[in-house]
Design goal:
This protein has 144 residues and is mainly alpha-helical. It has 2 domains: 6-61, Winged helix-like DNA-binding domain superfamily/Winged helix DNA-binding domain (Arc Repressor Mutant, subunit A); 67-111. Helices cover 65% and strands 0% of the residues.
């Protein structure tokens, strides 16, 4: 059971999302003054100095989870929790997969037209034999 009521959590979530009291009031269908009163109650319950401080304390206490939505990471987080991904995360996953397919196609096309670019972080060993031959020739040694 949570320390905060549903309305208090909604007001706190509104602050966490950057809403003004007026925006929060219209979203949860109460007056702006009521939102202010609820915010004061939230700060008192969490022993916070301000609403942003209350949001910070709520995250620390585990009342909120930092979640990503609408991208590949959000989709993966849903799957990790054995949940059906939300529509925004499905859309993000479709975009991610399309970008990956496009990237693979471009790599395949560039690979068939010539040498592929080295993998990021890997060593480029293209032409290493020619470089070794050039070095030995410069030193006057025979390449056996």
């Amino acid at each position: 059971m949570s320390l905060l009521s549903d309305v208090e959590l909604k007001v706190l979530r509104g602050t966490a999302n950057g809403e003004t009291y007026a925006e929060t009031a219209s979203r949860i269908f109460i007056t702006e003054k009521s939102v202010s009163n609820v915010a004061t109650r939230v700060m008192r319950k969490l022993d916070a100095r301000s609403m942003p401080h209350a949001v910070h304390l709520a995250y620390q206490a585990g009342l909120f989870r930092r979640e990503r939505h609408g991208d590949h990471a959000g989709f993966a987080a849903h799957r990790y929790r054995d949940e059906e991904p939300c529509e925004a995360c499905w859309a993000g996953e479709r975009t991610y997969r399309a970008e990956q397919r496009q990237k693979r196609r471009q790599e395949a096309v560039s690979g068939s037209q010539g040498a592929q670019e080295p993998v990021r972080g890997g060593r480029d060993v293209r032409g290493a034999a020619r470089v070794a031959q050039a070095r030995t020739a410069a030193r006057g040694e025979s390449a056996a």
